[in-house]
Specification:
This protein is an alpha+beta fold and about 650 residues long. It is built from twelve helices and 40 strands. It folds into three domains: about 230 residues, Beta-galactosidase, Chain A, domain 5 (Distorted Sandwich), CATH 2.70.98; about 100 residues, Immunoglobulin-like; about 290 residues, TIM Barrel (Alpha-Beta Barrel), CATH 3.20.20.80.
Length: about 650
């Protein structure tokens, strides 16, 4: 698999990027991606991040649409789209006629007229309107069921409450919604065919608030008989007096990046998890992992099953990496006596332990009672360890059941990029919301540090039933792990988690198709996961660059992009000057203009589709490459290919 196609280098799969077509409705512009609306805007005001029809089966798996008869008619200030969509998975079979109309006054109307083609159970069928995360803190007004209610959307992430045996929405059911932007512009949304509710999707690191159909109080799953009709309509009305700006105009201008030097923040400790599908690293793999400057190795120990083998493998790997262990201990309060045996094993192994995460196997969120029991039994063999309570599921559970942190040293939760959507456009949006989780956790943690462990592309667990993976891969495996997209996304993830104040972050695993490197044995299914034996994945270089900064005590400094959804920058103030990683998050070439550069030149190394082979086959050689690029009036201008990551070094 060493001869990869362009798209395999981009995404780890041989699929072209989604086509985005720009459409206009009066002052409103939007992008049509397949049959989804993206980035509905008036000028710089984003009305909706995405509008789409979600078909979710009884396991909450998203059933993709097969689209036929797509016809687009676009005028200068209006458009119409018609098509037919069919969703089939297992017993579920649902088809619908779709029409999208953009009118000259700026109103956008999307209609779904669907029919069940077989009897089936489902959890949700209907429109989802994603409001951008930037509306946090904005005023709203809703109406429906004889109710008229106003208030403010939460700034910190709103809880998804579970009370009296059911989940509760962020906002009660409505068929009319208004959101008032910071400048006073009023965005209007009108719904037909069902009642709609809202949840704060930042709980799962989606960068949005979601309006969805069918109130939660009706429960799930629902049943559809043959011929059952589901029809819904969404209308979006823009505020007036907004000056449009075309995507072409935005795309033609360079993205501006500005950095601020100063005292800065300490970088979080950054480590990796123990490989879940392959053995310990060999000599070459050990050398590469040590060179990455990893601060710890996460080792999961389930005390109700065989924990000795994972502990032995983890201790051996940690020694090879010269890094302490981060132990995730899964236990119930009735099993505390088993910790005495674990304590003896840890003492005999003479292992360094930096942190102990306490997770209860029978609860979504651990509490201080169990933490105290674990700490009392392990303190003598882990004298330097910090002890954490939290969750091994998602931030949503931690936010819903906020534990007492009186006895804890820190709080912990994991992050996954693909809980609700796994398309490239949606995934690239998630890092900013990752930072929101840290800020929200710090707000209720009472000054205690926040640990994010682990960060993954795909879910590690799926408690709702069966979940299919990509092209026959296990559902936990994402082919973007070995791609340029994965590296660019990792730059953005580190940026937002670090700038938000995370104390420690665990990324991915050491080896294998969820790791940083492919072991000598290669991937089990190279046709679906296109790697070769011994390959170094592009995201390895991102972690290794940040590891170099951490070893030299470089400080994190802010780096702001004029278009953060498409281009991000992570910056550090080091002894020898400014260090930066700049990532292009789009499948198109971009110009990045970095302001405030000291000196007349900068050293630049670019990881992109042209350098992919070099970086993957000869990582040590690649890491010392670079070219000198001249600056102009303290401005450095770079041309970045799709999903490229540039490392920039400047002098004092």
């Amino acid at each position: 698999m060493e001869k990869l196609s362009r798209y395999q280098r981009w995404y780890g799969r041989d699929d072209p990027p989604a086509r985005l077509r720009e459409l206009r409705a009066g002052p409103v512009e939007l992008l049509l991606e397949g049959i989804d609306l993206r980035y509905v805007r008036v000028g710089e005001l984003e009305l909706a991040r995405r509008v789409h029809v979600a078909v979710r089966d009884s396991s909450w798996a998203t059933v993709p649409a097969q689209v036929t008869g797509l016809r687009i008619e676009a005028e200068e200030a209006s458009f119409s789209v018609v098509f037919r969509a069919t969703h089939v998975l297992g017993d579920l079979s649902f088809s619908w006629q779709g029409t999208i109309a953009g009118l000259g006054d700026g109103v956008v109307e999307y209609t779904m007229d669907g029919t069940a083609d077989a009897p089936f159970d489902y959890n949700r069928i209907g429109f989802c309107v994603l409001h951008p995360r930037e509306v946090a803190g904005c005023a709203f007004r809703l109406s429906g069921q004889g109710r008229d209610l106003g208030g403010y959307l939460p700034d910190r992430i709103g809880q998804q409450r579970f009370e009296n045996g059911r989940f509760h929405p962020l906002l009660p059911a409505y068929d009319r919604l208004q959101i008032v932007a910071a400048d006073g512009a009023v965005m209007k949304f009108i719904f037909e065919g069902d009642l709609f509710e809202m949840e704060d999707q930042r709980n799962w690191t989606d960068a949005s608030f979601k309006t969805y159909s069918t109130p939660l109080e009706r429960g799930w799953p629902h049943h559809a008989d043959v011929g059952a009709v589901i029809r819904q309509v969404v209308r979006i009305a823009p505020p007036g007096a907004k000056k449009p700006q075309s995507r072409a105009a935005r795309a033609g201008s360079a993205a501006e990046i500005e950095t601020g030097l100063g005292q800065g923040l300490a970088f979080p400790e950054i480590g990796v998890g123990m490989a879940s599908d392959v053995g310990p690293p060999g000599e070459r793999e050990t050398g590469l992992l040590r060179a990455a400057g990893l601060s710890h190795l996460r080792v999961d120990l389930h005390l109700n099953s065989n924990w000795r083998s994972p502990l032995q493998a983890g201790v051996e790997t940690a020694r090879r990496l010269n890094a302490p262990c981060e132990l995730a201990v899964f236990i119930d309060r009735g099993q505390l006596s088993r910790l005495d045996v674990l304590a003896g094993a840890l003492a005999a192994a003479h292992v360094r332990v930096s942190r102990v995460f306490v997770f209860e196997t029978s609860r979504d969120v651990s509490d201080s009672t169990v933490l105290v029991g674990v700490r009392d039994r392990l303190r003598s063999c882990c004298p330097e360890a910090a002890f954490a309570v939290g969750t091994n599921l998602t931030f949503a559970e931690l936010n819903r059941e906020r534990p007492s942190l009186t006895e804890a040293d820190l709080v912990v939760y994991p992050i996954c990029a693909t809980i609700h959507a796994d398309d490239d456009t949606s995934v690239r949006e998630t890092p900013a919301a990752q930072g929101d989780t840290v800020q929200s956790a710090l707000a209720f943690a009472g000054g205690k540090p926040v640990a994010v462990s682990p960060v993954t592309l795909r879910p590690r667990l799926w408690p709702h039933g069966h979940l299919e993976g990509y092209a026959g891969l296990p559902f936990q495996v994402d082919p973007r792990q070995c791609s340029l997209f994965g590296a660019a996304w990792t730059v953005a993830s580190i940026k937002y988690l670090a700038e938000a104040g995370a104390a420690t972050v665990t990324y991915f695993e050491t080896l294998g198709w969820r790791g940083l490197l492919e072991p000598a044995g290669g991937a089990a299914r190279p046709s679906a996961f296109p790697s070769w034996p011994g390959q170094v994945f592009p995201l390895y270089h991102v972690l290794a660059d940040v590891g170099e900064w951490r070893r030299t005590s470089a400080r994190l400094v802010p780096a702001r992009s004029s278009n953060p959804l498409t281009l991000v920058a992570l910056a550090a103030d080091a002894e020898d000057g400014l260090q930066m990683l700049i990532a292009n998050l789009e499948p198109r070439r971009q110009t990045a203009r970095i302001r405030g550069i000291s000196g007349s030149t900068a050293d630049v190394r670019i990881l992109d589709e042209d350098s992919f082979q070099h970086a993957s086959r000869e990582p040590e050689s690649f890491r010392v490459t670079g070219e000198t690029v001249a600056t102009n009036d303290s401005v450095l201008e770079l041309q970045l290919a799709p999903y490229a990551v540039a490392r920039v070094r400047t002098g004092r």
